[in-house]
Amino acid sequence: MNAQKTISPRAWAELLLLALVWGAVFLSVRIALNEIGVLSTVAHRALWAALVLWALVFALRLHRPKGAKIWGVFLVMGLLNNIIPFTLLNWSQLHIESGLTAILNSATAICGVLVAALFLTDERLSTRKLAGVSIGFFGVATAVGLENLRNFDIRSLAQIAALTATLSYAFAGVWARKHLTGLPPLVAAAGMLTCTALIMVPLAWHFEGPLTLELRLETLAAIAYYALVATVLAYLLYYRVLAMAGSGNLMLVTLIMPPIAIVLGWAVLGEALHPRALLGFGILALGLLILDGRLWTFVRNKTL
Questions:
Q1: pLDDT in tens, 287-302
Q2: How far apart are CA 136 and CA 293, in angstroms?
Q3: How does pLDDT run across 267-290, given as a tens digit for each residue?
Q4: Cβ atoms 120, 177 nearer than 8 A
Q5: To the nearest 10°, the Cα dihedral for 69, 72, 77, 79?
Q6: Measured in Å, how far apart are the chain's first and last C-alpha atoms?
Q7: pLDDT of 1
Q8: Are 109 and 254 in contact (CB under 8 A)?
Q9: CA-to-CA distance for 41 and 269, rounded, in angstroms?
Q10: pLDDT above 90 (res 196)
Q11: Local confidence band at 303 (pLDDT 50, 70, 90 cut-offs)
Q12: Which position has the higher pLDDT, 217 or 254?
């Protein structure tokens, strides 16, 4: 197993900032959904984030991709990494607590390991990964409550939608690994979000009306947050932390986000979570720690 990189104080600070930024996105989306539709929330996020990212690409004089092939790659990436998961997660928040949405979203790392093992030859399932995935799925099942899925009401559908979004993210990771390696991250993000906007703006216009900025102040603030802070700034932070701490340490962000979302949902929206959801997150967090590798190595060394 590869050794984990040491996390410097600066990397920890930026990792915690990234978790705070992403943890608060569930609250900002829920506030926006009080006034605009699900499709419009996604359209606003993609449109404004794409414009800012292209401004950065031009300012930094990065190579601008040309040709139908690369834009086809961006289109698929936009579907898998933006359109499908954003739409499903946003819709799910209309019917379940933002904190539970964040917990279910944490299963992205679990799904990512399984999908990568299926499609990438260098990402095979090891004993450690299999243990982490198994425990993680048990945590998800606990948080959802299998008896709720048997009832199959709108709340159950919302939870299934959130979990389907994590699967879409997992396929996006494989697609990016296969087709976007070597492309500057800012360029890849700008292309992906441009394709997302080209699809979502017309869809939102058709089903929910034209995008408008004649909205309440809190809605505008929510849009600005999830489009500019939780997309553009978070994307830049993501790659800074990746460079400083490595991909294994970066996965720790998935452990920190849900508690932030739960606290914000309780403090601002008055949401409360069933104790089962909190227990499920604890089990899921254990699975993620095993996938991270350090807990597994610690236990193994203690038993030798």
A1: 878 877 766 666 666 6
A2: 14
A3: 999 988 888 888 988 888 888 788
A4: yes
A5: -170
A6: 17
A7: 42
A8: yes
A9: 18
A10: yes
A11: low
A12: 217
- 230: phi > 0 → left, psi -120 to 50 → alpha, else beta; which? alpha
Task: Return d(Cα 168, Cα 77) in angstroms, integer.
Answer: 10
In whole angstroms, give the CA distance from residue 209 to residue 203.
9
User: How many angstroms separate the CA atoms of 3 and 248, rounded?
Assistant: 9
Residue 303: in which H helix or E strand, if any?
Answer: helix 294-303
φ, ψ (nearest 5 deg) of residue 214 = -85, 70
Instruction: Please tell me the distance from the alpha carbon of residue 290 to that of residue 288, in angstroms, as a whole number.
Output: 5
Q: Which amino acid is at 256?
A: I
Amino acid code (one letter) for 51:
L
Measured CA to CA, the distance from residue 138 to residue 281 in angstroms comes to: 10
Neighbours of 255 (CB within 10 A): 18
Number of CB atoms found within 10 A of residue 278's CB: 17
